[in-house]
Amino acid sequence: MANQGAKKRKEENTRHMANLRRLIVACNVIYVLVRVLIFHSSFTWKHWVGLLLTSAAYFFPYQQLAQMAKPTYAHDGDLLDGGFDMSTGGICGYLHDVIYITSFVQVASIISDKFWYTYLVIPAFGAYQSFGFIKGFLSHGSEGDVEDEKTRKKREKMERKASRAKFVKTRNR
């Protein structure tokens, strides 16, 4: 019964990584079959570059996720940790987003090359996130603003009220 949570997490991560692998392989097979074999007359060097770009966009996030999902074992072979929880957000969620956006772009680019512009969502979201991060640092400079008379008096009154001793009445029988 020991380490049941770790065993369960290991199985979930194995299943999850297998599903991601199937998604990547399916998108690559669909792209190669349809774009290269069926629409071979319109297949140019740009499409080869696109195939290499999507392969790299699959490879790096998948390798990072595989490293995160890798279980940890003790020297005697006992399972210590089942790996990172793949359902959490943060960097894990962003890596999943890159894989899902890549799969969409790869399959949709069969229809039109304009779907490659969807990749601009990734740096745009990164810029949006970093703007919020930088804005948090810049807003600290406005703390030294002069407070008006009314706000100052209200704050002082609240401070005096909070500093007074509080008495609790009890009933004596």
Please explain how this structure is put together.
This protein is an all-alpha fold and 173 residues long. It has one domain. The protein contains 5 helices and 2 strands; from the N terminus they run ααββααα. It has helices at residues 4-38, 45-69, 91-108, 121-138, 149-163, and strands spanning 72-73, 79-81. It has a two-stranded antiparallel sheet. A hairpin with a 5-residue loop joins strand 1 and strand 2 (79-81). Helix 1 (4-38) runs antiparallel to helix 2, helix 1 (4-38) packs parallel to helix 3 (91-108) and helix 2 packs antiparallel against helix 3 (91-108). It is flat, with a radius of gyration of 28 Å. The chain starts with a helix and ends in a 10-residue tail after the last helix. Residues 163-173 have a biased composition (Basic residues). This is Transmembrane protein 208. It is a multi-pass membrane protein. Residues 142-173 are annotated as: Disordered.
What features would you highlight for this structure?
173 residues; mainly alpha; two-stranded antiparallel ribbon; 5 helices; transmembrane helix; Transmembrane protein 208
Give the H and E element order. Answer: HHEEHHH
Oligomer: single chain
Overall geometric form: flat
Q: Output mean pLDDT.
A: 84
Strand runs, count: 2
When the domains are counted, the total is: 1
- Summed up, the helix count is 5
The portion of residues assigned to helices is 55-70%
**pLDDT < 50 runs, ≥5 residues:** none
Strand residues, percent: under 5%
- The radius of gyration over CA amounts to 28 Å
Q: Give the strand order, joined by hyphens, for the main sheet.
A: 1-2
Which structural class is indicated by helix and strand composition? Answer: mainly alpha
Largest sheet report: 2 strands, antiparallel
Q: What's the N-to-C terminus distance?
A: 56 Å
